[in-house]
């Protein structure tokens, strides 16, 4: 059984994650996290939001504001599953 699914936005520049968080700070569970080691790119931080908030976030962010998008899930054994997000 999978737990709640999150979406991670990766960024190239160090200041971009904080700017992105300011835009979605009203979203429940939106936060900056260290970039998981499974993601080999970016500035070292990712913006984590609930998957349910993805469409709203994409409507808010400007084109090119983030690098890539990933899904983050945990399986029943609490093992982290990270995959590049497919629309």
Structure summarized in a few sentences:
The protein has 87 residues and is of the alpha+beta class. The chain is 18% helix and 30% strand.
Labels describing this entry:
5 strands; alpha+beta; five-stranded antiparallel beta sheet; 87 residues; globular
Strand order of the largest sheet: 2-3-1-4-5
Task: Tell me the structural class.
Answer: alpha+beta
Mean pLDDT: 91
Q: What characteristic shape results from the CA principal axes?
A: globular
State the distance separating the first and last CA atoms. 22 Å
What's the total helix number? 2
Radius of gyration: 12 Å
* Strand residues, percent: 25-35%
How would you describe the overall organization of this protein?
The chain has 87 residues and is of the alpha+beta class. The protein contains 2 helices and 5 strands. It has a 5-stranded antiparallel beta sheet, covered by helices on one side. The longest helix has 9 residues, at 16-24. The radius of gyration is 12 Å and the shape is globular. The two termini are 22 Å apart.
SSE blueprint:
Blueprint: E1 6-10, H1 16-24, E2 31-34, E3 45-50, H2 54-60, E4 69-74, E5 80-84
Antiparallel strand pairs: 1-3, 1-4, 2-3, 4-5
